[in-house]
Design a protein that fits this description.
Blueprint: H1 2-16, E1 49-54, E2 65-66, E3 69-70, H2 71-88, E4 92-95, H3 105-114, E5 119-123, E6 136-138, H4 146-167, E7 175-176, H5 196-203, E8 208-212, H6 219-225, H7 229-246, E9 260-266, E10 273-278, E11 285-291, E12 298-303, E13 307-310, E14 318-327, E15 330-331, E16 340-343, E17 350-356, E18 359-365, E19 372-378, E20 384-391, E21 396-399, E22 407-417, E23 420-424, E24 431-433, E25 439-441, E26 448-451, E27 455-457, E28 462-467, H8 471-488
Parallel strand pairs: 1-4, 1-5, 5-8, 6-7
Antiparallel strand pairs: 2-3, 6-8, 9-10, 10-13, 11-12, 11-14, 14-15, 14-16, 17-18, 18-21, 19-20, 19-22, 22-27, 22-28, 23-24, 23-26, 24-25
Helix pairs in contact: 1-3, 2-7, 3-5, 4-7
């Protein structure tokens, strides 16, 4: 649903923004000011983008004022607390304004459409006579888009539940909607909503609510909710819990922490690359991305463990890997954009062999400089056996343990020392080695320990077959074959 809804919303936003004024949007945190969107790598199937709209703004649109308090300023403070709390659950949150500036009512909804929002919540405070008190949530009317109304009703019910529980706020008519009297209609001809933010959001099929947790004009509400930073935080957190609950978030599960990359290196098997990272708190799985130099990140796999093997890497190529942690609430708020680097091995080693003087002389060429070469040989039984290991600066070997008349197949593999790690597994009481898969320590003192004593093969083996026949016999056989061919001709 996200891609289709986003395409429709962005298309409508592009048309309607031509007639609107520019939106003063957020340029910090995760919001990408250059494009106006969240990084798509941070948006998974469980993620939702919510726009929080601090009501009013600018020098003249102050909203309600009472007891020395100004609604415009309190709306912004509460909105920032809503954002903070929602992001702790993994929700992706943007503000329609981050300072005291005027934003048109319709532009607030257009902004939500532009960033592909799944919901919009406009933060206000109520104002009326001194006796009016309690919370109120305004939702879309029954016209045009029933899905928007249904989603908004879920948010409104959850908001009232949390505001009542956390702040003890209630009202005679806590949830209501309103039809316009100006004659405005939706595309299907039905009567439009009265409130512009809700009306324009519905045109983009975005569920929107207006939240008024208390009356700024009521002394009791002011004292309970608005007279200190701690009280404003409590209001913002309560609204955020209601929104998260209404949107289907698990309030007992926090956002996953970003994955901390450890290493990427060849496994020694084919062109496979092993990627490792530390287990992230609150993460249930990990999404692995890969790119080449100057390329774009592409997802290549998922893992529930803090490791992944890339089996689709090609030979003689440099890759960069990164990991995004995720749980059922959504993905982490960031990731390592640089990634870890790994180069796959060359496809093969050029290997030559010649039988002479009762020995098989092996020679090979290799542009790389490994730590060592291991040579294997198979005979009539077809089983390979290790026969020698030579230093990495060698390019030849002589095998004297051969029998005339036999046929041998040789293979050579180059080896390099590879880094391996033993580090703390945060979800277990101990330290685990992901090289061996065995528990190596039951203490919690070791966090990371680098080991360089393990040697793994890094190149694909190269094969060659040689027949151990005496040179004179071979020359005689070749001469006989030539004479036979001449006679036949």
């Amino acid at each position: 649903m996200r891609p289709l809804k986003s395409i429709i919303s962005l298309a409508l936003a592009g048309v309607l923004l031509l007639a609107g004024t520019p939106v003063q949007a957020e340029a910090g945190a995760l919001y990408r000011a250059d494009e106006g969107y969240y990084d798509p790598m941070l948006l998974g199937e469980h993620d939702k983008i919510v726009v929080i709209d601090p009501g009013h703004g600018g020098p003249w649109e102050t909203g309600a004022c009472s007891g020395g308090l100004v609604e415009r300023d309190l709306n912004l403070k509460i909105s920032k607390y809503i954002k903070q709390r929602l992001e702790s659950y993994g929700c992706k949150v943007l503000l329609s304004r981050t300072y005291n500036t005027r934003v048109g009512l319709e532009d607030r909804a257009r902004y939500a459409a532009k960033v592909g929002a799944d919901a919009l919540a406009s933060a206000h405070l109520n104002g009326a006579g001194a006796r009016a008190h309690g919370a109120r949530v305004i939702i879309p009317n029954r016209s045009y888009d029933g899905r928007c109304r249904s989603a908004a009703v879920s948010m409104a019910n959850a908001l009232m539940k949390h505001l009542s529980k956390d702040l003890g706020l209630g009202a005679r008519y806590p949830i209501y909607s309103r039809y316009t009297k100006s004659g405005l209609r939706y595309p299907n001809g039905s009567r439009a909503d009265y409130f512009a933010v809700i009306r324009v959001s519905k045109r983009y099929h975005i569920p929107a609510v207006i939240v008024e947790p208390c009356y700024i004009t009521n002394a009791g509400d002011r004292h309970k909710c608005l007279t200190s930073e701690a009280k404003l935080r409590k209001v913002g957190y309560s609204e955020a819990d209601g929104l998260a609950d209404g949107l289907g978030y698990n309030l007992h599960l926090k956002a996953p922490e970003p994955a901390e990359l450890l290493d990427a290196e060849p496994t020694g098997k084919s062109s496979y690359i092993s990627v490792t990272w530390e287990r992230s708190k609150n993460a249930q799985k990990y999404i692995v991305f890969r790119r080449t130099k100057g390329g774009k990140w592409k997802e290549i796999g998922r893992s529930k463990k803090p490791s992944f093997t890339d089996k689709r890497a090609t030979y003689n190529q440099t890759y960069y890997y990164t990991v995004v942690s995720e749980n059922s609430n959504g993905r982490a708020v960031s990731y390592d954009k640089s990634g870890v680097k790994a180069k796959t091995p060359r496809h093969d080693i050029e290997l030559g062999a010649r039988y002479t003087n009762g020995k098989v002389a092996l020679t090979w060429t290799d542009e790389d400089q490994p730590d060592s070469y291991t040579i294997y040989r198979s005979g009539d039984d077809g089983d390979y056996k290790k026969i020698a290991t030579v230093d990495g600066d060698k390019r030849s070997y002589s095998d004297a343990d051969v029998n005339e008349g036999s046929i041998y197949t040789y293979t050579i593999r180059s080896y390099k020392k590879c880094k391996t790690y033993t580090y703390k597994d945060r979800n277990r009481d101990g330290v685990k080695s992901y090289l061996t898969g065995r528990w190596t320590c039951r203490k919690r003192t070791v966090v990371k320990h680098k080991r360089n004593d393990e040697i793994r093969s890094t190149y694909k083996k190269s094969n060659i077959t040689v027949a151990c026949q005496p040179q004179a016999q071979t020359d005689t056989e070749n001469q006989s074959e030539t004479q036979t061919a001449d006679t036949t001709q």
